[in-house]
Amino acid sequence: MTPHPGRRNAITDVPGIRVGHARLDGAGALSGTTVVLAPPGGAVAAVDVRGAGPGTRETDALAPGNLVQRIDAVLLTGGSAYGLAAADGVAAWLERAGRGHRVGPDPSQVVPVVPTAALFDLGRGGDFRARPDAATGRAAIEAAAASAAGAAVAQGSVGAGTGAVAGGLKGGVGTASVLLPGGVVVAALVAVNSQGSTVDPAGGLPYGVADGLRYADGVPEFPLRAPGRAAAERALLLAVPPPQWPAPLNTTLGVVATDARLDRAHTRRLATAAHDGMARAVRPCHSLADGDTVFALATGTADPPPPRPGLLPEHGPADAVNQLLAAAADVFARAVAHAVLAADSVTTPGGHLAGYRELFPTAFTP
Q1: What confidence tens digit (pLDDT) does each residue in 279-320 have?
Q2: Is the CB of residue 301 less than 8 Å from the CB of residue 51?
Q3: Preceding peptide of 305 cis, ω within 30°
Q4: With contact defined as beta carbons under 8 Å apart, do 24 and 136 qualify?
Q5: What is the pTM of this model?
Q6: Segment among 29-33, 62-66, 86-90, 350-354 with least mean pLDDT
Q7: What is the mean pLDDT of residues 96-100?
């Protein structure tokens, strides 16, 4: 079977995974949160932080060997370190639902562990003090819980990507999935807010487009036309952040998920591999000004993919994990491309943020 995107080409193609977005209200606000909600019973979770300026919460709880083995939700948020307060709203919702690490004889006695990472979008809507809080986090998890199983995921300037910028272009949220031999799903959701560029100056297409697949009916995932070097150079000259913004601090965040059964150590390898996809799709990444962080979730409802033909039996388990790792890198790069392509231009008191479609209209010419 040739790998192809899942039904929605989204992280919700992993059975039981749901996604909710919330946007901060108010004049001058351009920020939000995104929650990835695991199925009841949670998921094995891990994290890999590569950026030099991370803003995180509960990442130490995900280290191999630590007590908590499964978590119920991951939060991606704007607002830099201030935005980590949004996790309080997610934790409160989970507590009321009786979901979390049980610490007492009563089923309601739980402590929700909500791994969280923040990106820098302060002041991009004009108000430096407009940033997500507990109410924004609660709104995002309520939206996730209310969504249907396998629902489509809104992309672009939504949730944690509301105020995101990618190499001077409008950034945002993107997602993608792949269905592997044997039916295992690997998928990613990203919030792209990078100092590095996501667009290849040689042709004008997002770098992640090179990892694009074909759907089961043969339709290409990215039916785009390369604008060419001259058009790319002209467009990228216009992709300049407004001069009144704070220093160009950034961070690309992501969640990679699978329904394969993995332990904590192999789940962390999934997060590590996803960073390879980030490095393909964002150039450069992992800088001193980025807090690049990837979480990984393994729900364990499917068997790993079968070994490829011709391998010795003892190579089977390792080969199955290697297929998942390769897929994690590919799917993360594709999700970055979807984020950039879906992001809308926006004009705020903080300045104009041009999206890819505004700057590269010829890419969509038949």
Answers
A1: 999 999 998 888 999 999 999 987 666 665 544 444 456 778
A2: no
A3: no
A4: yes
A5: 0.94
A6: 350-354
A7: 96
Say which amino acid occupies 3.
Answer: P
Sheet strands (E) in the chain: 18-23, 32-37, 43-49, 55-57, 70-71, 73-77, 101-102, 110-111, 116-118, 165-166, 169-170, 172-179, 185-192, 253-260, 293-302, 346-348, 351-353
Q: Which of 117, 27, 114, 48 is nearest to 77 (CA)?
A: 117
Q: CA dihedral defined by 22, 13, 187, 326, rounded to 10 degrees?
A: 180
Binned at pLDDT 50, 70 and 90, residue 224 comes out as very high
Measured CA to CA, the distance from residue 226 to residue 249 in angstroms comes to: 30
- CA torsion, points 289, 324, 221, 291, in degrees to nearest 10? -10
Interval 58-76 mean pLDDT: 93
Structure tokens at 163: 């105020």
Report how far residue 335's alpha carbon sits from residue 106's, in angstroms, rounded to the nearest whole number.
41
